[in-house]
What does this fold into?
Amino acid sequence: MSSKPYDILVAGEINPDLVLTGDVVPAFGQVEKLVDSASLSIGSSSAIFAAGAARLGLKVGFIGICGDDLFGRFMLDEMKRRQVDTAPVIVDPSVGTGMSVILSPVGDRAILTYMGAIDRLRAGQVTDELLARSRHLHVASYFLQTAMQPGLPDLFRRARSHGLTISLDPNWDPSGEWRGFDVLLPLVDVFLPNENEAKALTGEGTVEAALKRLTEQCPTVAVKMGAEGAIAARGMETARAPAVKMQVVDTTGAGDSFDGGFLYGFLNGWSLERALRMGAATGSLSTRKAGTTAQATLEEALHYAG
It folds into this structure.
């Protein structure tokens, strides 16, 4: 695909997920409830994306910050095991690694997150040397990565000067303000919100209207719609792809896995429709098991993407 060391450089947050599955609702008052399973797995939108993209055979490098602790070492070991190059990661012993606890009944999830080092990476720490070694830059969890936000426009401009294409997955804005995107979107090649994020960002009531608004600022936009699949636009072209029918166990990381599939197609110069089918396949297949253990291989995804 490329002679550069990295097809994709991910600048993102690092935290494991403790995923609890079961049809239960937590209750205070020292009420104990039983879940069906518990697993500790790769967490954070950025790291899940990196693992999924590497699973498809892309060369992925990762820069982020973690603590010198059990959770940090777990994440580094797991990313390495998934063929993600973690050499650029900054280990800071002065801060703890972030952590998310996810309760995941069928088709939904609730998340409690300890920030730790999640918000510590600064855009200036993504060096020109790293960018020069990469073909594409991906950023996710924009609203959690608060230290990165001020320098992100400059980082995107530096990336462009080195010939990289750029993708951004915003994730949800807990404040509800959705600021900063008028500056960012014109610098981005691929924007990857889900349906609720796209509507909230644009103020539109339908995904189609939101997609139209977003493509006025960004060349390629793919909107994830869960069980309804995905819709995308590039210029005047639009495409839809259904989700692959699965026995859903856990939806954690499905959107990040979608991103990996879609960008695989984008970086290979595929048509918009085929890239969208690839994203829908990788997103759907990731729901087969808890955590990120079911992310698709290239062979599995191509079976559905064609």
Summary: The chain is about 30% helix and 20% strand. The longest helix spans residues 254-267. The radius of gyration is 18 Å.
